[in-house]
Amino acid sequence: MISKIIEPKTLSLITTEKCTAACHNCCFQCSPRLKQRMSLEDMKFLIDEVIKDFPMILACVFTGGECTTLGTDLHQIINYAAINNLKCRIVTNGHWAVSESRALLFLKQLKDAGLHELNLSTGDEHQKWIPYDRIVYTCQAAVKLEPV
After folding, report:
1. Which is nearest to 90 in space by CA: 15, 8, 7, 6?
2. Which of 30, 66, 100, 115 has the fewest other C-beta atoms within 10 Å?
3. In what helix (H) or strand (E) does residue 60 lie, and over which residues does it extend?
4. Among candidate residues 22, 27, 33, the one with its CA nearest the CA of residue 127
5. What pLDDT does 148 receive?
6. The domain that contains 91 carries what CATH number?
């Protein structure tokens, strides 16, 4: 029997257990009560190790919990991954998008740091915690940014 080895293309970092929502069906069991998070140094170390051991890695995903709760560390780690030639993606619930203009500013800062892709977590459970308008504002702002 011949087996084919599937090489990894994406590194995903669960950066924090803290989330702005407390969905009962969260796959990582994150919540606002949890404070654990990866340090910036640990994230850099993992990116370095993965790049060294798996040079075929093309992308880095930052998720959680809610990775945007990392504040400026999120900008720094996106920039670090980007200068190491990784396409950067975040997974977010958009809690920060209180208006379209705020969402545009937030996303522009992340794009300037090296963000390449945005994934939004939403659905019935999320909407108990994050107003649907925040997802709409995020989408409206994202389409206004020029493609990378």
Report:
1. 15
2. 100
3. strand 59-63
4. 22
5. 53
6. 3.20.20.70
What three-state secondary structure class fits 61?
A: strand
111 vs 56, 120, 121, CA distance in Å?
A: 23, 15, 19
> What's the domain count of the chain?
1
For the chain, the first-to-last Cα distance in angstroms comes to: 43
Q: Given its phi and psi angles, is residue 114 left (phi above 0), alpha (psi -120 to 50 degrees) or beta?
A: left
Judge if pTM exceeds 0.90.
Answer: yes
Per the structure, the complete domain to which residue 133 belongs is given by 10-144
Per-residue pLDDT of the chain (148 residues; tens, 9 = 90+): 778 888 999 999 999 999 878 878 877 877 878 899 999 999 999 999 999 999 999 999 999 999 999 999 999 999 999 999 999 999 999 999 999 999 999 999 999 999 999 999 988 887 889 999 999 999 999 999 976 5
Q: Indicate whether 93 belongs to any domain.
A: yes
Main-chain phi, psi angles of 7, to 5 degrees: -80, 140
Contact 126, 87 (CB under 8 A): no
